[in-house]
């Protein structure tokens, strides 16, 4: 079997896989939890609940910051230093990478940081991109 034929067959199988997954999820009925009716609570209790929710959200952000690799932390520090934004090549060069490898070195860490919501990706004209700290 030629490699090109094998690749085509594998691509066709990959395209069909989501269809089978959708059928499997449609076949199994989902259980829906009934919403409980809640009586109106005093204003003081709702304010306390909001404070508790905010306090719970803060450790979640700290946990995501702890989960960063040293490379991701280094990239994040560079982006935070430059408030006007930097492109991946500029970030890599500032980190001490070679000119040819700078952009690709920073791209992986930048993808993770944008997924975590720590860095904002700004698309400029064409294929130019800037990254800014949020």
Walk me through this protein's architecture.
The protein is mostly helical and 134 residues long. It has helices spanning 3-27, 43-66, 70-81, 88-94, 102-116, and strands at residues 119-123, 129-133. The relative contact order is 0.09. This is MarR family transcriptional regulator.
Topology:
Layout: H1 3-27, H2 43-66, H3 70-81, H4 88-94, H5 102-116, E1 119-123, E2 129-133
Antiparallel strand pairs: 1-2
- Give Rg in angstroms: 23 Å
Low-pLDDT runs: 52-65
- The N- to C-terminal Cα distance equals 51 Å
DSSP strand tally: 2
Mean pLDDT: 73
Task: State the order of secondary-structure elements, H for helix, E for strand.
Answer: HHHHHEE
Question: What does the overall shape look like?
Answer: elongated
- Beta-strand percentage? 5-15%
Total count of helical runs of at least 4 residues: 5
Instruction: Give the helix proportion (percent range).
Output: 55-70%
Side by side, the strands of the main sheet go 1-2
Q: How would you sum up the major sheet?
A: 2 strands, antiparallel
Protein name: MarR family transcriptional regulator
């Amino acid at each position: 079997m030629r490699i090109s034929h094998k690749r085509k067959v594998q691509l066709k199988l990959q395209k069909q896989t989501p269809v089978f997954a959708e059928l499997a999820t449609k076949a199994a009925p989902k259980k829906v939890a009934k919403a409980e009716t809640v009586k109106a609570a005093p204003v003081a209790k709702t304010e306390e609940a909001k404070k508790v929710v905010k306090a719970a959200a803060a450790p979640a952000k700290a946990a995501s910051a702890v989960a960063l690799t040293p490379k991701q932390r280094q990239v994040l520090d560079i982006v935070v230093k430059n408030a006007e934004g930097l492109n991946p090549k500029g970030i890599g060069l500032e980190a001490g990478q070679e000119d040819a490898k700078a952009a690709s070195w920073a791209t992986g860490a930048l993808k993770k940081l944008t997924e975590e919501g720590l860095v904002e990706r700004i698309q400029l004209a064409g294929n130019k991109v800037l990254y800014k700290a949020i």
